[in-house]
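Batch job 17 of 40 flagged for manual review because the log was empty.
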Amino acid sequence: MTTATAFTVLHDFPAYDVVEPIASAFRGMPVLTAGDELALADSPMQHYKISSVASYALQNNDCPIEAVERAKANGHDLHFVFALGTVLTSHKRAKGRYIGIECGREYWFEGKVIRFEPAPNRNLKLVIVR
């Protein structure tokens, strides 16, 4: 998740907060980073994670260039968002933090301008704008 010192809390739940994304001075739009955990600002019960083929490869000590070329050759998306599962626990754990996002709003992610669109079954689709 994105680390910063001050967040504007959009929703405060006992187990987690949903916070406003930090607007970057870079191109004036919020910046998302691979591994950020997200929630829709207007429907914060479903959680997502954003990533890319290159950042996943780096995280697993693989060559990002080879991973991107392989994904392109197989017709796969290079940037993606996926839903996270929900778990009930009987033990105390630290309060989580999710970045509140909005469908249709533009974000900066790994050198690309992206937006999220609704997809079937309460999923999200990541769209590369430019």
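Reviewer: the log was empty due to a logging misconfiguration, but the result itself is present. The longest helix spans residues 64-73. Unflagging and moving on to job 18.
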